[in-house]
Amino acid sequence: MSGAAQPAGRAGLGERLLDALDRWVPKPAAWAFALRIWLAMMLALYTAFWLQLDSASSAAVCVAILAQPKRGQALSKAGYRFLGTVIGGIVGILLIALFGQDRVLLLVSFACWLGACVFIAQFLQDTRAYGAMLSGYTVAIIAVAHIDAPQTVFDAAIGRVAAIAVGIVAITFINDALASPSTWRSLLPRLAAAHAAAKAFARESLTQGDPGPERTAALVRQVAPMRADASAIAGELDDGVHRAAGARSAIAALYVLAAASRALAAALDRIPEPGPRVREAHALALRAVLDGADASPQTLARDGERLRDLVDAGMCEANASLDEIMALQRALDVTNAATFAEDGVRALGDGHEPLRDIALPTHRDFQVAVRAALRVMIAFGLAAGLFILLGLPQSSFALVQVAATCSLSSVTPDPRKFAQGVLIGMPLAALCAGFILFVMLNGNQGFPLLAIAMVPPVAFGCLLSLNPPTFTIGFITLVFTPVLLAPENPQSYDPQTFLMNGLLVVVAAVILFLTIRLVLPISASQHRAFALEEARRDLAEALVGEGGDATTRTSLNADRLFQFSAWNSGSGAVRRASLHHAFAVAQLEAAAARAHAQLRPLSELSGLIPLVTRAREALASARSADLDRAARALIGEARAQDRTVRMQLARAATDLATASHVIRRHGRFFRRLSLPSS
């Protein structure tokens, strides 16, 4: 027995050792990524030396900042980096021209420009936000760094733009030459998995009832992060525009599929004995979310047309109930969402032009954006005052690092975690640069030796950046190692300057850490309060017919719910209640926006103007009884209209009734939001 147990124990120990090695040893793809970044950095640096650029190190730093594992991510970031650099260079030259003789005014004007860029970046998405933020601290690199020699600013701006262009060309060439993984290939299996999860969610809704807000929030959390990759696909291939549009269409459809399946389940619950039309509509909607041949494009198109016939037949029937029309329309919504999702996933895979091209807006809070801008301005102002009082010779270098790190933190999902990573990464970057400069090179000149010496820190930074918990540490190490090393031809070896620069970047990291912690901090409860206030404003706009189309609002609300679920805290009961209320606001806003979208063309028909006016007034007042009467009045008018108008009336009546049910169910909560007559 013991002899048998011993080999098993040894096997168990060996398996645990293999598991540990598998967890800690980077995969071949990670090493390939590190190799590509090292080659691109060396190519950029060598080209900058050959062109005799004054800021040759900026080319290597550019490659480090653009270090992305997927080709589309790097291309998208590169484009906005170049644009942000050009804008920042122009503004830097302009500020020096206006305030070159007055340092105080120059620093104040730069702080205002930096705050404005950070504020704008809060309302943009992904790499566009990075480009806006970059145009802010680029002014520091060009103008503030040359505050003692304003006559050199123009040459510095031209040199930096040239270095950035060299870095972009280098990383693009290496990514293409070494077949960097495409973003769409990595997104396709994730989107397919989310599509399968959404269809399973819909099947559960239609067979077992509403899964609830918690399950819906989990599905949203699976879908929402793919939006960033969807926006980075367009520049990868000739058909990248179609693939990106397909990905966006599928993501939006998955949001709608979850909401429509829950709405259909709720409508079916209100019908004690469904008639033949409702039963057939339910079966068709269920078939639309099945796997296999039943979900083929041809079947979905045929079932969608059949559901339109059922909705039209229901609208033509004299005694059709509002709940029956709602069930028929929601079944059609499920099938339409399944059609767009299926088409979008296929478009991502084969590059055909999808059925639609829509935007995926993100939720941003005005209060959060203002605080982020003020935080950066205050941090830069306090740092400028401190360094001026200390009279350090490298004060301008330190101010550039403060501006850069504070700006970068403003566009990250969690500024606190980013500040912690910077606090660890800056000393590591200083150690790496010092090791290269005074141990590996040790006074020698020559590019081959420099390239070999750069291998360990580049590999270290790349591997750390691929792991989400250590991403910031790896990113800061990768970027600031060449910043502190400052490769030149010939290379300078001044230990005093290096030690001072290393100390100043660590001080900049400490300033960032303290700023994030102490200056206008935002707690999770404040995030929820800000999001709720923005949702209340958007809801008020939707009730009166303003603020955008329903598809855009659905995506915006999904992103808001995604962020809200991350900020949601407290006991289980409190979290569930908060999610219920958040979903109620989103459902009412989407219903109001869709209803107004249908009422606008109906208002052009003279015979429907009084009914449309009453429906709009009911939405604006948020009275559930008036909404129900308006919905029934629209259904009663349907028999006198043609098929196209009947379909619009069905959609409008369904959304009016949906708004009524939501208001009736969550009346106390909506009264707290100060909605009229809720």
From TrEMBL:
> Where would you find this protein in the cell?
Cell membrane
Parts of the chain that traverse the membrane:
29-51, 78-99, 105-124, 129-147, 153-175, 372-392, 418-440, 498-520
**What InterPro entries does UniProt report for this protein, alphabetically?**
PHBA_efflux_AaeB/fusaric-R
Primary location recorded for the protein, binned into one broad class: membrane
Gene Ontology cellular component list: plasma membrane
GO MF annotation: an example: transmembrane transporter activity
List the keywords (alphabetical): Cell membrane, Membrane, Transmembrane, Transmembrane helix, Transport
Q: Which Pfam families does the entry link to?
A: FUSC
Q: Which domain of life is it from?
A: Bacteria
Q: Which residues form a coiled coil?
A: none
Q: How does it sit in the membrane?
A: Multi-pass membrane protein
PANTHER family this protein is in?
A: MULTIDRUG RESISTANCE PROTEIN MDTO (PTHR30509:SF9), P-HYDROXYBENZOIC ACID EFFLUX PUMP SUBUNIT-RELATED (PTHR30509)
> Would you tell me the protein name for this molecule?
Fusaric acid resistance protein conserved region
Organism equals: Methylorubrum populi (strain ATCC BAA-705 / NCIMB 13946 / BJ001) (Methylobacterium populi)
Lineage of this protein's species?
Answer: Bacteria, Pseudomonadati, Pseudomonadota, Alphaproteobacteria, Hyphomicrobiales
